[in-house]
Amino acid sequence: MSDIKITYFNVKALAEATRLLLKYGGIDFVDNRFEHSEWAELKPNMPFGQVPIYEENGKTAHQSVAIARYAAKKVNLVGDDDWENLEIDAIVDTINDFRGKIAAYNYEQDPAIKEARKGPLFQETIPYYLEKFEQIAKDNNGHFAVGKLTWADFFFVGLLDYLNHMVGKNLIEDSPNLQKVVENVTSIPNVKAWIDSRPQTDL
Amino acid sequence: MSDIKITYFNVKALAEATRLLLKYGGIDFVDNRFEHSEWAELKPNMPFGQVPIYEENGKTAHQSVAIARYAAKKVNLVGDDDWENLEIDAIVDTINDFRGKIAAYNYEQDPAIKEARKGPLFQETIPYYLEKFEQIAKDNNGHFAVGKLTWADFFFVGLLDYLNHMVGKNLIEDSPNLQKVVENVTSIPNVKAWIDSRPQTDL
């Protein structure tokens, strides 16, 4: 039994990058998923009321990006020096900003506000980010940073189904280099085996 | 002349943590500040249209948290091992989430939406985060993580005037342990010298 446990909803979303990274490195973990009906009871016990959380050796950590970076160090998918790690961290935070902008629209409860946000998001924000991401993926030969496979690629791939779900379309259908990023990650045997065997969820 | 250059508005806000960290370590940099009137012309040339940017040895990086982490490595204010860095990264991202929630209110252009956001922010979100931050600072002896001085403390101190400006009050006036975090950073001679000599700005 692994001493690593990831606790999250039964979805990919914010936990999947870490799951993919650990599986890539052949590191086993307890994939502890809960249902939405259980969340109200669990939430008060979570750090800052949020998941995923990551447990190891009796210690608990939170924040999905920080957890993914930690997992990346375990499996040697970080940069070769501090500057490379800065470049990786910067694009990961930018991908996460992109997620945040889509989420601000998707989770908006007020229909009027949501409608007002739709145009700017779909006509300005999404094309702006996708164009830059596509160019970065092209410049880095099918990767998001430093011209090789890093956890930035896993971070994007882990989020993509969730992003697509929130916007109701395949964001990268016209982005061949972003498709290459996905292929470069998902074709790795350990990763492919996880994708084929993991719980099937929409997001 | 230093080969490090930080480019940002003439404010503390998202650049100040990195400035404080470099000054702490006695590392000189070009403090390149521009006025709001220049921003429209500069913005298209910035990575993802954002600042601060950090330049060193002819290379450019973006994303304020990533830049601050890089500066922290230079001045040895990171953790002693990967788990400590996970704890530091997690609280930094949580402080940054707190900033994001305040900013979403502060920069809201629609007066009706802004008014609707005011109650939940001031009566729920801010007290929720401050109570937890205060407890963390107490548990860590006047620090934000791993019981000692790290860049997480600098990150909070660097943002605080900006946060206070956005909410129109001193967020930590009733939080003695968060005041201790501020004191622990600002009383360091190199830091104090910078604070006494830097351009005086509200945020």
Describe the model:
The structure is a homodimer of 203-residue chains. The first copy, chain A, starts with a strand and ends in a 6-residue tail after the last helix. Chain A is globular and about 45 Å long. In chain A, strands 2-1-3-4 form a 4-stranded mixed sheet. Chain A has helices at residues 16-24, 36-42, 64-74, 82-106, 111-139, 151-167, 176-186, 189-197; strands at residues 4-9, 30-34, 53-56, 59-62. The first copy, chain A, is built from 8 helices and 4 strands; from the N terminus they run E-H-E-H-E-E-H-H-H-H-H-H. With 203 residues, chain A is of the alpha+beta class. In chain A, 34% of the residues are buried. The longest helix of chain A has 29 residues, at 111-139. Helix content of chain A is 58%, strand content 9%. The model of chain A has no long low-confidence stretch (mean pLDDT 97). At the A-B interface, strand 4, helix 3, helix 4 and helix 5 of A face strand 4, helix 3, helix 4 and helix 5 of B.
Which features does this protein show?
homodimer, 203 residues, alpha+beta, four-stranded mixed beta sheet, 58% helix, 9% strand, globular
Note the topology.
Two copies of one chain form a homodimer.
Chain A: E1 4-9, H1 16-24, E2 30-34, H2 36-42, E3 53-56, E4 59-62, H3 64-74, H4 82-106, H5 111-139, H6 151-167, H7 176-186, H8 189-197
Parallel strand pairs in A: 1-2
Antiparallel strand pairs in A: 1-3, 3-4
Helix pairs in contact in A: 1-3, 1-6, 1-8, 4-5, 4-6, 5-7, 6-7
Protein name (chains A, B): Glutathione s-transferase
